[in-house]
Structures are given as structure tokens and as C-alpha cells.
Amino acid sequence: MGFDDSVLICDEVDPVLNKILEDNGLKVSYEPKITPDQIKEKISNFNIVIVRSRTTLTKEMIEKADKCKIIARVGVGLDNVDQVAAKEKNIRVINAAEGAMNAVAELVLGFMLSLARQTTRGDRAIRNGQWLKNELKGTELRGKYLGIVGLGNIGKRLGRLARALNMNIIGYDVVPIDEEFAKEVGLMKADLDTLLQSSDYISLHVPLLDSTYHLINAQKLSTMKKTAKIINTSRGGVIDEDALYEAIKSGNLGGAALDVFEKEPAIGNKLAELDNVILTPHIGAQTKEAQSLAANIIGEKIIQILRGVI
Fold it and tell me: What single DSSP character describes residue 71?
């Protein structure tokens, strides 16, 4: 049975999503470069609105979405959708949390390896005519302690990858941790302060909420090992970037790798001044496999909702 609902796709997505929707009779308007003003003008015409990370659906936009049944994010976080406004309009909000699991975990693993061996610094030096062989004495990941803050899909995948490298895993979450997973990787459960004090690497996997804004601040950074490295692929506001800059510049922290920032695009971010910092432009889920999987997940979820299955 086909559906005659209309769909507005506001960002670039894998073509498989369009195909799933159109094969089920939905009318798709694919506008990956649509502006906020254009969304305000058009949103009232659509039953389903789909975004990735480029587009933010504000309260003002959602209040105009009189026909809308579903808002879908082809990704993990939902901080770019005003969920309160959506609830008031009785609009169901969904995401594809499973889609980016492996891509983000592999990026974190890559960050840890690069921080341990200072590969980005070595690359920059050679490009600038320098040969830093004697200076770039690295460390191995084997035997080091990895603290994972937030043990959802991504955190658990990272734990499994890190365990395969014989790292020791420390975990903290505000919700109960999966006991089978904990047993599988030999997870040591700890409160946040203990995790920060004990870990050689810390990886953040939490949503941006009032309770997690600047979760890692100057006080928390001061409790960490001077050789520790922190990695953030969750949301920029989880770390106080000014405090992070000061901690690394002063030698009180070993380094950092950030894929997300409080202000994006992060052009001109002063953390770029520091050698032992790796910065990437929010590419955690930017793999062909993750984008295809997320598009499939969202497409199937939309069809199942319309069929009344979920």
C-alpha cells in the first residue's frame, strides 16, 4: 500500500532514502540547499520534514508546520530540532542513532592512535621542511586506560574496538550500563570524577543538554593526568573550549582531538594554535557506509510509522 504524504528533505542525504520514500508513494521535495527563510515559507505544505546537521528546525519554523506528522534527523543527535515545539504540535521526532555507531567509534580510535604517535604533527612538520624524528617519541595504546563517558551505541562500539587493542576500559553513564557489555570488555564502572582522574584517554559520547553543557570545565580538566588526552565527537558545548585551551597550553593536559565545536564552522578557533590538538570539521558520521545506513534506517522508520507498526 502506498502513501500520498509529502516530504521535504532539507539537507543532502544518501539517494537510498529518496528511493525508499518514492517507492512507497510519497511525494519527495529534495532541497539540500534550502534556506531557513525558505523553510518557513514552505514547511506548512509538508507532512514529513527530514534534516541532517546543516539545518536547524526552530520553534518558529515548527509552529508553521501545520500538516507535519514526522520530523526525521538522518543522524544521531536531535539538538538541531526544537523538540518541545514539535511535541506541542504533536509531531513525532525520530533519528537514526544506530547509523553512525561504527563510523564515529572508528574516528575516535583513529584520533587515539594519532595522538599517541603524533602523526598529524609529523605530517605538518615534513610539509614545512622539518624532520622531527627524535622529537616524536610516541606511546602505545596497549595497556592504557580509556575512559568512555556515555555508553550508548557508539560508546559500546568504541569499547569493543579498544578492548581488541588490549586497552583497559573505564565507563561512566547516568543510566544503568549494559551488564553483558561490561562483562564482555572487562569494563570498570566509575563515577565521572574517578574516570577523569584515572584515564589516559577520555572519549565523550553524551547529548548536549543543560546538564551536560560544559560538563568538562576547568575544574574537571584540572583533575586529569597531565599526560591525558581528551576526545570529543559528541557535541561541542560539552567541553569548555577556553578551559581546554588553557589546560593544554599550560602543559596541564597532554592533548585533545575535537570533531565538534561550540561554534561551527570552527574557522579561527584558537585551539588550532596548539601542536598537540587534532581538529576535524564534524566528520564523525561522514562515511559512505554510515550515510547509507542512516538513510535506510530513517526511510524504514518513516514507512513503519505511517503503517502504524511503530
Answer: E
Active site residues: 235, 264, 282
Strand 27-30 with 201-204, pairing:
unpaired
Q: Please, which residues have CB within 8 angstroms of residue 210's CB and are 6 or more apart in sequence?
A: none
Distance between first and last Cα of the chain: 17
Looking at the fold, whether 73 and 167 belong to one and the same domain comes out as no
State whether residue 188 is helix, strand or coil. Answer: strand
Adjacent-strand bridge partners of 278: 257
Q: 228, 159, 166: which is closest to 199 by C-alpha?
A: 228
* Together in a domain, 176 and 111: yes
CATH number at residue 47: 3.40.50.720
| Same-domain check for residues 174 and 52 | no
Residue 209 lies in a domain: yes
**Tens place of pLDDT per residue across the chain (310 aa):** 568 899 999 999 999 999 999 999 999 999 999 999 999 999 999 999 999 989 999 999 999 999 999 999 999 889 899 999 999 999 999 999 889 999 999 999 999 999 999 999 999 999 999 999 999 999 999 999 999 999 999 999 999 999 999 999 999 999 999 999 999 999 999 999 999 999 999 999 999 999 999 999 999 999 999 999 999 999 999 999 999 999 999 999 999 999 999 999 999 999 999 999 999 999 999 999 999 999 999 999 999 999 999 8
Give the separation between CA 88 and CA 299, rounded to whole angstroms.
24
The pTM is what? 0.91
- Sequence letter at residue 246: E
Same domain membership, residue 138 and residue 260: yes
Residues 57 and 128 in one domain: no
Best CA proximity match to 199, nearest among 153, 158, 240, 154: 158
